[in-house]
Amino acid sequence: MTSKIRVLHIIDSLSVGGAERLLVALTGRIDQQAFETYVCCLGVIDGNVLASDLAGLSAPPYVVNSRRLYNPRLITEIARYITTHNIDVVHTQLTHADIAGRVAARLAKRPVISTLQNEPRDYERQRIDRRWLERYTARYLTTRLVGVSQRIRDMFVQEWRIPADRVCTIYNAVPMEDYLAIPETSALASPDGPMITNIGRLTEQKAQHIFLSAARMVLDRRPDARFMIVGRGHLEQPLREQAQRLGIADRVTFTGVRRDIPNVLAESDVFVLSSFWEGLPLTAVEAMAAARPVVLTDVGGNRELVESGKNGLIVPPGDVPALATALLSLLDDRERRLAMGRAARARVQHDFNIDTIVDQYESLYRALVRQHSVVAANA
């Protein structure tokens, strides 16, 4: 009987975020007859709330609880965990986990995969030492890199000079059952006016200040419109103050983190991401699966997700009038809004289905184990 392949996922924490939710989906859907799955996180953020969603693990999540990158204990503990549990493949996501996991995997002589969740510019915003370590370990210590869209993959090949044959594309995806169950028209009959929703961390990347400025322009034409911002972050207070200055605070709801995103989308008519950069946003995939038309900025892999004018709209990042115009075009045309939502659902059901993505990662794990075995045998 062939032994199972043991995969260790390493991530910064198990807080709510795109990379963390992808990890939860992978561990929940992977073939447990062929794989044993382990999870290591470097620290605790917001209580690591997603830990309770992990299913099918071969051991409880291992928390190193060291957010300091320059801590020798961090590397040695991860390397020891890899060898103790006889891990076959290490899979990392997010900067600290990437760097620590790649070094530990090299010490333990195991192949390592890293999923690149964002554009290179996201890494360029970090401290110079972490930027250098991320690039160096990506280029020289990582067996295979995975871009979450073709555009992201190409960016890293060109800008970081990663050999093209070491970087592949596997789209981000989500389990869709709860979103496909949402009726297409559930939010449209609300007597309180149409709801436009933004979901994401309240950070510079997500650019909710652009969303609020566009909301002001929309309300000049559609005073019945409502806006919901779902998430938490260090910009929450400045965004609340902006809404007050714009005179729209009574039309904007800040909900904080919500764990019931299907309910959020069921209450929504249009979904918006005003981001300055992205990888391939899971929240947009969820909104499309819920048959909600999406308005996204032209960053990251968004054009691979949305064909503008057919199953969503694409606008330039930072362009407030363009975003407001796109939103108004959907609010003013109910039939177009519904048709675009239906087309969005059809788009993601096949190409962004979590089972398809899990199959691709399983194939990658198997290929790396075979490659590692050949190398070890010839060493």
Descriptive account of the structure:
With 379 residues, the chain is of the alpha/beta class. Helix content is 44%, strand content 16%. The protein is built from 15 helices and 13 strands. It has helices spanning 18-29, 72-84, 95-107, 120-124, 128-140, 150-159, 177-180, 208-221, 236-246, 261-266, 282-289, 302-305, 320-331, 334-351, 354-378; strands at 5-11, 35-41, 62-63, 89-93, 112-116, 144-147, 167-169, 195-199, 226-230, 252-256, 270-273, 294-297, 313-315. The strands form 2 sheets. Strands 3-2-1-4-5-6-7 form a 7-stranded parallel beta sheet, with helices on both faces. It has a 6-stranded parallel beta sheet with strand order 10-9-8-11-12-13, with helices on both faces. Strand 6, helix 6 (150-159) and strand 7 form a beta-alpha-beta unit. Helix 2 crosses helix 3 (95-107). The radius of gyration is 21 Å and the shape is globular. The two termini are 26 Å apart.
Main β-sheet, spatial strand arrangement: 3-2-1-4-5-6-7
What is the global morphology? Answer: globular
User: What is the overall pLDDT average?
Assistant: 91
Number of contiguous helices? 15
Provide the structure class. alpha/beta
Percentage of residues in helical conformation: 40-55%
From the alpha carbons, calculate the radius of gyration and give it in angstroms: 21 Å
Per DSSP, what share of the residues sits in E-state strands of 2 or more residues? Answer: 15-25%
Number of strands: 13
Low-confidence stretches: none
Largest sheet: 7 strands, parallel
Could you state the order of secondary-structure elements as H and E? Answer: EHEEHEHEHHEHEHEHEHEHEHEHEHHH
Q: What is the terminal-to-terminal distance?
A: 26 Å
